[in-house]
Design goal:
8 strands, Sortase, Chain: A, 5 helices, alpha+beta
Length: 311
């Protein structure tokens, strides 16, 4: 009996190989799944990083920055080089975030280093001094802003501060003492002029509303009860600061950082999605997760600077 003729292998032009029992299917494209996986990794890392950044990591960052600022300010106070105006001891304008004062509110248990400036980035480290106002202890109205919930939430209970409570602020000119005169919300009347042209006042500002959803501005006014300290000539008057330092404003200057960190995160996620085909899933993600987490936190930190500075 004659055996049936062998079935020839499909030609190479159709993707066949010797020994194949039938025509081979073309390999499925992998570019789409890799891009999808990278996009999902970026989304997951940003969302997780954003939630963690505003809570656990944000509070830890605030505590670390406060310790560093306290050490710097304590050294300057000991050496007599702490700033007393818009310029530092070297004659240069104070940089954003430079420590300028130590704020104590005994009734609330607040003990915070105050940085120069009120941008969202500065207020991540603690309360900030509005740069177009005098420093605490000097004539005029000094303004200090602080977050309500995020990054330590130093002013989270500011609305409970009772009339007559004491506020103390240590600067390069010594300790200034204030007595709370009232709490103001949107629509409330402005306080009466402070004790003549040479009087001093402190206004603390934070947000109102539910956690992480600011709805308005809360102000606490306090009158200076200690002697007024002389202030150096102010080269810039009230109102010269930009929108990023106003209450409930974000910092639009953070967009380049958001773009660059997001690009880095996407490229890292794309590399991880591709590398797992060579190394294997567990080996790849064991190395990739720490990198993606760090980049996700960097993106979320940059995005937070775009959000209202008092949340």
């Amino acid at each position: 009996m004659t055996p049936p003729p062998a079935v020839p292998a499909p030609p190479a032009a159709y993707g066949g190989r010797a020994g194949d029992s039938g025509p081979a299917r073309p390999p499925a494209g992998r570019g789409g799944p890799a891009l999808t996986g990278a996009a999902l990794c970026v989304l997951a890392a940003v969302l997780l990083g954003f939630a963690v950044s505003l809570t656990v990591v944000g509070h830890l960052q605030h505590a670390r920055d406060q310790q560093v600022g306290y050490d710097d300010l304590r050294g300057q106070l000991a050496e007599g080089t702490a700033p007393v105006g818009q310029r530092g001891n070297d004659g240069k304008p104070l940089p954003l975030g430079a420590p300028v004062a130590l704020l104590d509110i005994p009734a609330l248990g607040v003990h915070e280093v105050v940085g120069e400036g009120t941008t969202s980035g500065v207020l991540m480290s603690g309360p900030g001094h509005r740069r177009d106002t005098p420093l605490p202890g000097q004539a005029g109205t000094a303004v200090i802003m602080g977050r309500q919930w995020g990054y330590g939430g130093p002013f989270g209970r500011l609305d409970t501060l009772a009339r007559g409570a004491t506020i103390e602020v240590m600067t390069g000119q010594g300790r200034a003492r204030y007595r709370v005169s009232g709490v103001r919300r949107a629509g409330d009347a402005l306080p009466a002029p402070s004790g003549g042209s040479g009087g001093g006042r402190l206004t603390l500002i934070t947000a109102t509303g539910a956690p992480y959803t600011p709805a308005g501005v809360l102000r606490v006014d306090a009158e200076l009860t200690s002697p007024v300290q002389p202030g150096p000539p102010r080269e810039r008057r009230n109102g010269w600061i930009g929108p990023a330092e106003e209450a409930l404003h974000g910092d639009s200057g953070a967009w380049p950082a958001v773009f660059l960190w997001t690009l880095g995160l996407f490229l890292a996620a794309l590399a991880a999605a591709w590398t797992q085909r060579v190394w294997g899933r567990w080996q790849t993600w064991l190395c990739a997760v720490p990198v993606l987490t760090a980049l996700g936190l960097a993106v979320s930190g940059a995005v937070t600077r775009l959000l209202p500075n008092l949340l």
